[in-house]
Design a protein that fits this description.
By secondary structure, this protein is of the alpha/beta class. It is built from eleven helices and 14 strands. The protein has two domains: about 5-60, Orthogonal Bundle (DNA polymerase, domain 1); about 65-340, Alpha-Beta Barrel (TIM Barrel). The strands form three sheets. A ten-stranded mixed beta sheet has the order 3-4-5-6-9-10-11-12-13-14, covered by helices on one side. A two-stranded parallel ribbon has the order 1-2. The chain has a two-stranded antiparallel ribbon with strand order 7-8. α1 (about 10-20) crosses α2 (about 25-35) and α10 packs across α11 (about 300-315). It binds S-adenosyl-L-homocysteine.
Length: about 350
């Protein structure tokens, strides 16, 4: 019999199993709390009887990640973990320190099948989806190792969260559970390369998260060249979905725009971008494109980035430049991968 991934269960689902085992209801809450503290084994649950622990072991498995390697940036203290999963697949995750606390960038898949031309995460395609429990464990494992409490989460590591929709939704519910990590949805950003039907589906949940959309181009001509997904969901459809998302959730959308030297950084591009986003409550996050050795894109110099930002703000747009963290350990946007090379 295949063991059930216990940490991906909601407290109510767990309660059903526990009741069927003939155990008192309150055990479910106790077990749930232990799991979300990041225990590695049922034996660590000190207020659970030996006989129940035995029953749990027969039915369930606790899926956790393990630290395979740890890299610490000498520039800004950013930490990148290479984690191993139960089946020895590898993922990466990054912990960043900000004035307001610690933020973690987690992976949602092993690899990625979106194939954006500038990104390292999709170079080897998709291996598999992460479970909600594995995503949670990315957080608890880092918290334990660094002895900190993480207050903000971005689903911006390897993988496309909306291509792993069901587990991502489970994760969002679990991570914000008051008996779990209890991290408020307002402190969580979910990033997508633009899976239009899934953006609309997510809107129905009305989570107070921030939706980040990886736009990276002001028109179809450029976006078709750089992002494969645009052939399926062109810019107009994507922006239309964003408008619907905003109308449903009332949450301001954040657009990511990686500035690639000579590709999408002209004054005309800034104008097109402002026309495209006109009338939409949003914020533009400018990211100087980070180097990925397998492609030939170039990082723009600082002045070009500032010029592009000024062009946008002069047009009345809300645009800021994202600080690059962890540059010396390949921990920046688009540099995470599922192998240690
Ligand atoms: N699949 C989701 C989540 C990944 S988030 C998404 O596409 O949004 C990672 C972010 O880094 C995305 O905005 C991605 O487009 C961006 N990115 C990828 N490669 C990059 C690079 N070389 N430089 C800067 N940003 C990059």
């Amino acid at each position: 019999m295949e063991l059930i991934d216990i940490k991906s269960l909601s407290q109510n689902e767990l309660l059903e199993y526990i009741t069927k085992m003939g155990e008192p209801k309150f055990k479910a809450k106790q077990i749930f709390k232990w799991l979300h503290k990041g225990v590695e084994s049922f034996d660590e649950m000190t207020d659970i009887s030996k006989s129940l622990i035995q029953k749990l072991k027969e039915k369930f498995v606790i899926l956790n990640v393990k630290i395979n390697k740890k890299f610490v940036s000498k520039i800004d203290g950013t930490v990148k973990y290479l984690y191993s999963l139960n089946d020895n697949d590898l993922i990466e995750c990054v912990v960043m320190k900000y004035l307001h606390g610690y933020s973690i960038c987690i992976s949602t898949q092993v690899g990625c099948r979106m194939g954006c031309s500038f990104c390292a995460s999709g170079l080897f395609g998709l291996t598999r989806n992460l479970t909600a429990s594995e995503m949670l464990s990315e957080i608890t494992t880092a918290q334990k190792d660094l002895n900190i409490r993480i207050s903000n989460i971005v689903l911006m590591g390897m993988g496309e969260p909306l291509d792993n929709f069901e587990n991502t939704v489970k994760f969002l519910k679990l991570v914000s559970d008051e008996n779990g990590l209890n991290i408020g949805l307002r402190h969580i950003s979910v990033s997508t390369c633009g899976l239009v039907p899934k953006i609309l589906e997510l809107a129905e949940y009305n989570f107070p998260i921030t939706l980040s959309v990886s736009l990276h181009a002001p028109n179809n001509e450029i976006r078709n060249r750089t992002m494969k997904i645009n052939h399926k969901y062109p810019v107009e459809e994507l922006i239309d979905a964003c408008k619907k998302y905003f109308n449903k959730t009332n949450r301001r959308i954040s657009f990511e725009y990686a500035i690639i030297d000579g590709v999408n950084d002209s004054k005309e591009n800034a104008k097109e971008l402002s026309r495209l986003l006109h009338g939409l409550m949003c914020h533009i996050n400018l990211i100087p494109a980070n180097p990925v050795k397998e492609n030939s894109y170039k990082t723009p110099n600082r002045q070009k980035v500032l010029n592009f930002q000024k062009a946008l703000t002069d047009l009345g747009m809300n645009a800021t430049v994202r600080r690059t963290l962890g540059a010396d350990i390949s921990a920046s946007c688009g540099q995470l991968r599922n192998r240690n090379k």
